[in-house]
Design goal:
The protein folds into two domains: about 250 residues, 3-Layer(aba) Sandwich (Rossmann fold), CATH 3.40.50.620; about 60 residues, no CATH class. Helices cover about 45% and strands about 10% of the residues. It has 14 helices and eight strands. Strands 5-4-3-6-8-7 form a six-stranded mixed beta sheet, sandwiched between helices. It has a two-stranded antiparallel ribbon with strand order 1-2. α2 links the parallel β3 and β4. The structure holds zinc ion (ZN) (2 copies).
Amino acid sequence: MSNCKKCGLPGSIILRKKDLYCTECFQININHKFRACIGKNKILNGNENVLICLSGGPCSTVLMDLIHNGITLNNHKKLSIRPIFFHLMGLSEKTDAVLLTKALIEKCNHYKFNIYVGHIAQYLLKDIDLPEVNVVPEVNNNLSVQFNDLVHSMSVSSKIDFVSKASRDLYINFAKLLQCRYVFTGETLGTLATNLLTNLTIGRGSQVQHDVGFCDNRSQIKILRPIKDISQEEIDQYIKINQLDIALTSSPINQENCLQTVIKNFVIDLQENYQATVSTVCKTADKIGIGTKKCNTCEICESDVGEISNKLSALEATNFSSTISAGQDHMTLENNLSIKATVYSMFPHVNQTLCYTCSKMFSEIDLNIMPERLKEVL
Ligand SMILES: [Zn+2]
Ligand SMILES: [Zn+2]
């Protein structure tokens, strides 16, 4: 078999080890996946300002190219959004943030796009200013030191989780500043499968629809993931065929020895041999509904904080058994109140202003370096 499975002409791209495509059908298919994802979800109205978040990695490079193709079309298929490009510096300490940002500004200019740049340490600020366009921002050194001290006071897994919640918060704040009601991020199938399994492992199971589905609508500003149906294999092929340059070649997560790396490697292995499983996992996550019961929302991740109930939750039961097995206490199962008191001391603000996982993360932060904005709201 050497012919494209779509058009029958000679093919040159093999996907999933068996499906052959010609370059043209492959390109059409990828563009279709991107457009269909936006179209079928019917969330986006025409001519909206959309903040496009770029990390500089392979997925965001493909996202930028797909947007460029879409908005430069001259027919009825033209993508009717006004993209505003944005990059958040400082997500990985192992990469030279200034070099990466300069490379990204250059890439955007090559497409005749402008880009705004923010810094992750701005999470500590109560208010952020509108950045200058196409400029690497000067970040107050104290601020970045303070942010680094903060994340280093946590375990590696919590740190990665916290940085992703802080980025989400900043994407939303910059979107507001730049008058966008929508944000595009560049997660693909593999990234979302990794995030899904990570979420389940760290206690964010009830948040998977927002974290893994097409749309995160916890905030008034909606975060959309328009390339979520594209696989890593397709990203790699797209980059090769279109000879795209990648500004960021290493993933920040891969450099850490932690839960997220283990899960990521597991998904990479799975994609290699059982790709259908990865997409089934993600599609299932998309279908999981979220209860409509209204309770408070978490000050860090904006998810529901969960309910305070008189019955013991799984969290409290787990915590009770760990307390007992550690031999630190002599509570009895009947004594729900004292168990609850212990839980709330171990998990500060849980079910009140923080969800379970954010509370756990919060408990790891050194109180002396707690950001003012968190101190104020909690
Ligand atoms: Zn073909
Ligand atoms: Zn939370």
